[in-house]
Amino acid sequence: MVRPGKPVRGSSTGRPLMAALDLFGRRWNLRIVWELRDGAVGFRALQQRCDDMSSSVLRQRLNELLDARLVEQLPDAAYTLTELGHGAYRALRPLVRWSGEWASTVATPPGASE
């Protein structure tokens, strides 16, 4: 269970940033937040959106995100972002813009005019 204030991988202090880096550094967690950005998605559809990751890994990651209160499960069993989860998605948007710039830069050979 990743929680601010408790020791996490790479930090014995559990500072909020370190806890967040631990949570989002776990494979698939950011991808799940990304895939839920537009609304609720059922388990199988989410699994397909995440390149057919194994169901056991998806369950484990969803449980982590549920425990962190970034995701909630609706009565129809679909998963959706909480308000906190939407905040995490909004925090990712600058990284999305930056990754586009990065992709453009590395696609241009060094020394070539841009």
What features would you describe in this structure?
With 114 residues, this protein is mostly helical. It has one domain: Winged helix-like DNA-binding domain superfamily/Winged helix DNA-binding domain (Arc Repressor Mutant, subunit A, Orthogonal Bundle), CATH 1.10.10.10. The protein is built from five helices and two strands. Strands 1-2 form a two-stranded antiparallel sheet. The radius of gyration is 17 Å and the shape is globular. The model has no long low-confidence stretch (mean pLDDT 92).
What is the CATH topology classification name? Arc Repressor Mutant, subunit A
Over the alpha carbons, how many angstroms does the gyration radius reach? 17 Å
At CATH's second level, what is the architecture? Orthogonal Bundle
Biggest sheet architecture: 2 strands, antiparallel
CATH class: Mainly Alpha
User: What is the percentage of strand-forming residues?
Assistant: 5-15%
Helical residue percent band? 40-55%
The secondary-structure element order is HHHHEEH
CATH homologous superfamily descriptor: Winged helix-like DNA-binding domain superfamily/Winged helix DNA-binding domain
Helical region count? 5
The outline comes out as globular
How many domains in all?
Answer: 1
Overall residue-averaged pLDDT value: 92
Q: Detail the poorly predicted runs.
A: none
Query: In whole angstroms, how far apart are the ends?
Result: 46 Å
Structural class by helix and strand composition: mainly alpha
The count of strands amounts to 2
Strand order of the largest sheet: 1-2
